[in-house]
Write a structure and sequence with these properties.
Helix content is 35%, strand content 26%. The chain has 267 residues and is of the alpha+beta class. The chain has a ten-stranded antiparallel beta sheet with strand order 2-3-4-5-1-6-11-10-9-8. The protein has a two-stranded antiparallel sheet with strand order 7-12.
């Protein structure tokens, strides 16, 4: 699934629409990139760059729209939201550059602790790898993030933040759910290409690989650890053998994306 989408364009958003559906706030101190921000129910709109000099500001996209596809039943519903934000029936999707996108895949057979014990991320510097409060961060762009999805939902609920009905259902359905997420800045595509290319982004998950728990020859630290694991932990580690588990992550992402693009609006 796609868990985050940042779009930029040169079109000004419709002020009346934003004032009706949200509240426009102004950055009077040039501390932020954009002078105005409006949070509506399912999108955040930032517009009018003002942090730098006139020439630099003029070269920047006038508007940045931040969306989370999980708040939309399907792609077409998200696009309808864009038409409303810009109050037009004639948007040119090529004019919307994708400045950031997050890919996500949820797996219910392993927990984060097991992943920590076996994970290797290709082509990253050690300085960009860290584990904070049980969440794994690896790389810069793209950045991999692996965490306990159920706990993240519960934390949002406790903090009074928005949680979808589907997410509430996950809390009832699963005892373990690990989110594998990859954040990509400037993937080199526009909104018109998203439907066609979203599935191909699955190759970013190939950066993940897992040390084998068993092999024909000694495997160093992992081989030693395996002899001391309890049965439950061994079963979880067995899920992470070689490419099989990475393919499972990729297939889960792809099926979620395909469903989102193919599904029709509920009216």
């Amino acid at each position: 699934m796609i868990d985050y989408l940042s779009l930029t364009c040169q079109l000004p958003p419709d002020k009346d629409y934003m004032e009706y559906h949200g509240k426009i706030t102004e950055d009077s101190f040039r501390s932020q990139m954009y002078k105005f921000m409006c949070q509506i129910e399912r999108a955040r709109i930032l517009y009018y760059p003002h942090k730098f000099g006139d020439s630099t500001n003029a070269a920047m996209p006038f508007t940045n729209i931040i969306l989370n596809p999980k708040y939309y039943i399907c792609y077409e519903e998200m696009v309808d939201c864009l038409f409303s934000i810009f109050d037009t029936s004639d948007l040119i999707f090529e004019d919307f550059n994708i400045s950031g996108i997050h890919l996500a895949s949820d797996i219910d057979t392993v927990n984060v602790e097991t992943v920590i014990a076996t994970l290797h991320v290709k082509r990253i510097r050690l300085s960009t790898f860290r584990i904070i409060k049980g969440t794994i961060y690896a790389g810069a762009n793209p950045k991999s993030r692996i965490y306990n999805k159920l706990k993240e939902i519960e934390d949002r609920m406790k903090g009074g933040k928005r949680v979808t009905e589907e997410e509430k259902g996950l809390l009832e359905l699963y005892k373990v759910l690990t989110r594998f997420e990859i954040a990509i800045g400037s993937p080199g595509m526009n909104l018109s290409e998203l439907r066609e290319k979203a599935t191909s982004l699955v190759s970013y998950f190939d950066r993940l690989e897992f040390i084998r728990a068993t092999c024909d020859s000694p495997c160093g630290v992992m081989q030693y650890m395996y002899r001391h694991m309890n049965r439950k932990f061994r079963q979880e580690v067995a899920e992470l053998k070689d490419k099989d588990f990475v393919e499972k992550i990729k297939n889960t992402y792809s099926s979620g994306v395909d469903k989102w693009f193919e599904q029709n609006e509920p009216f």
